[in-house]
Design brief:
Elements lengths: L2 H11 L17 H10 L3 E5 L2 E8 L2 H11 L6 H15 L6 E4 L4 H7 L3 H13 L7 E3 L11 H4 L4 E3 L8 E8 L3 H12 L5 E8 L5
């Protein structure tokens, strides 16, 4: 077998980075993407729709690929990478809370993907922080906010409270904050249920026009 054929076969069958597609010789993510993720981490606070949102990074390039690979391609092991960065974010700001909860997916998304991506991330965070954690909200309205003309109205009535949160200090987590409408609606429902203080934490923040 000549060298050209050997090289061609190695390119076809060699493992590739799940984020950029480059050929790699071990692992699932290439060194370049690992470095890009690490370099993008910057623990910050941004106010979105009146909410104080703690975030670990911005929704750009490799972070976008990371989240799509996790949620859309179903690479569930990536929940550990995302979850661990959220743990470090929580520790960095020394956030105090009684209960960890998360923004749940809709029934349609759960059926299509086969898993609730935030439930897996919350398990990582709960395990590392050894805190109380359970699902407090349920998505009861199917909405496609990406294509909705008015995203703020589209999310109204999307969630309902399913657990007692009276007088709880809550840490609400999600993978990304785009417009802040989903977080705002979840906070509203939790407040109506009697929750005390609610802190919102996301892995990535997408800035307007980015």
């Amino acid at each position: 077998m000549n060298e050209f054929i050997k090289e061609s076969l190695s390119l076809i069958f060699s493992p590739r980075c799940i984020l950029c597609g480059e050929v790699i010789y071990w692992g699932r993510i290439c060194k370049n993407c690992v470095n890009k993720i690490s370099n993008s981490i910057s623990y910050e606070i941004t106010y979105v729709k009146g909410l104080q949102v703690f975030h670990a990074t911005l929704y750009k390039e490799v972070i976008r690929n990371l989240l799509l690979s996790y949620k859309v391609s179903g690479r569930m092991f990536l929940s550990r990478i995302i979850g661990n960065h959220m743990v470090d974010l929580i520790k960095h700001f020394k956030l105090d809370f009684d209960l960890l909860t998360y923004v749940p997916v809709t029934k349609t998304v759960l059926f299509e993907r086969g898993f609730d991506h935030m439930k897996l991330i919350s398990r990582v965070v709960q395990k590392e922080l050894k805190c109380d954690s359970y699902k407090t909200l349920k998505a009861v309205k199917e909405t496609d906010q990406v294509f909705a003309q008015n995203r703020e109205k589209a999310v109204l009535g999307k969630f309902k409270l399913i657990k007692n949160v009276h007088d709880k200090n809550i840490l609400l987590i999600d993978d990304i904050c785009t417009t802040g409408n989903t977080l705002k609606e979840c906070v509203k429902i939790l407040k109506l249920g009697g929750a005390n203080e609610i802190k919102t934490v996301v892995f990535a923040l997408k800035k307007e026009g980015k």
